[in-house]
Specification:
Layout: E1 2-3, E2 6-8, E3 11-12, E4 18-23, E5 27-30, E6 33-35, E7 38-39, E8 49-54, E9 61-64, E10 67-69, E11 72-75, E12 79-81, E13 86-89, E14 92-94, E15 97-101
Parallel strand pairs: 1-5, 2-6, 3-7, 4-8, 5-9, 6-10, 8-12, 9-13, 10-14, 11-15
């Protein structure tokens, strides 16, 4: 669980400033602010948040009440999702820029 955190002005090479990889069982990200984060590789996935893992138990994955503003990446500047069963609830996406696909979400 990640609650009420701010991720701002961060630079990463290929995956989001907050990356979840491998496998997980439950994940909740709520009330977080992702502002002005940048994945610098041209083919990067997720400037702010990258969810790239196996959810073999089909457990709940919830991103709620988060704000994604001015993030940049090759794909999915706000969020890159490569897992089934993700719920986005009351999230706000503003001015996220992808050079290839999915400014806010991919």
């Amino acid at each position: 669980t990640v609650n009420n955190c701010t991720f701002e002005d961060s630079r990463v090479k290929s995956k989001g400033v907050l990356s979840v990889i491998g496998s997980t069982y439950y994940l909740t990200i709520s009330g977080c602010v992702f502002n002005n984060n940048n994945a610098t590789d041209s083919g990067a996935f997720g400037g702010a948040l990258s969810l790239d893992f196996t959810n073999s138990l089909n457990s709940p994955i919830v991103v709620s009440g988060c704000k994604f503003t001015n993030n940049n990446a090759g794909n999915g500047a706000g969020i890159y999702i490569n897992v089934a069963g993700v719920s986005l609830v009351n999230c706000n996406f503003t001015s996220n820029t992808a050079t290839t696909q999915g400014g806010g979400l991919y």
